[in-house]
């Protein structure tokens, strides 16, 4: 059986109160509203994908969408290596 990697509903929230930001996500708030209301920045917002066996998968980020702590690429690489726990999902 071919192996695969699945990421489901992953969020990475940067700030002092990630649970407060997640509650705003559940209420349907946008990333901009969450930042304004909770002072938390969402680096990854509800990401879901599957990588099939043998598939080459590249994650890239637009420089304008970098989070406070650096690029999403660095977060995702560290997340996949379990260096940074996801705030929710996976």
Describe this entry's structure for a reader.
29% of the residues lie in helices and 26% in strands. It has three helices and two strands; from the N terminus they run E-H-H-E-H. It has a two-stranded antiparallel ribbon. The chain is elongated. 17% of the residues are buried. Mean pLDDT is 76; it is low at 63-67.
Summarize this entry quickly.
The chain is an alpha+beta fold. It has 3 helices and 2 strands; from the N terminus they run βααβα.
Main beta-sheet strand count, sense and barrel state: 2 strands, antiparallel
Q: Quote the distance from N terminus to C terminus.
A: 22 Å
Radius of gyration, in Å, reads: 14 Å
Record the strand order, biggest sheet.
1-2
Structural class, from secondary structure content? alpha+beta
Broad shape: elongated
| SSE order | EHHEH
Structure summary, number of beta strands: 2
Provide the helix percentage.
25-40%
Helix count, DSSP H or I runs of 4 or more residues: 3
Mean pLDDT: 76
Given as residue ranges, the uncertain stretches (5+ residues, pLDDT < 50) are 63-67
Oligomer: single chain
- The domain tally reads 1
- Beta content comes to 25-35%
């Amino acid at each position: 059986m071919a192996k695969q990697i699945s990421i489901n509903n992953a969020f990475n929230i940067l700030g002092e109160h990630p649970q407060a930001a997640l509650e705003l996500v559940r209420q349907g708030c946008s990333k901009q509203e969450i930042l304004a209301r909770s002072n938390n920045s969402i680096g990854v917002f509800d990401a879901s994908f599957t990588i099939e066996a043998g598939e080459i998968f590249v994650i890239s980020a637009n420089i304008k969408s970098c989070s406070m702590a650096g690029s999403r690429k660095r977060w995702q690489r560290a997340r996949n290596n379990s260096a940074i726990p996801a705030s929710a999902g996976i």
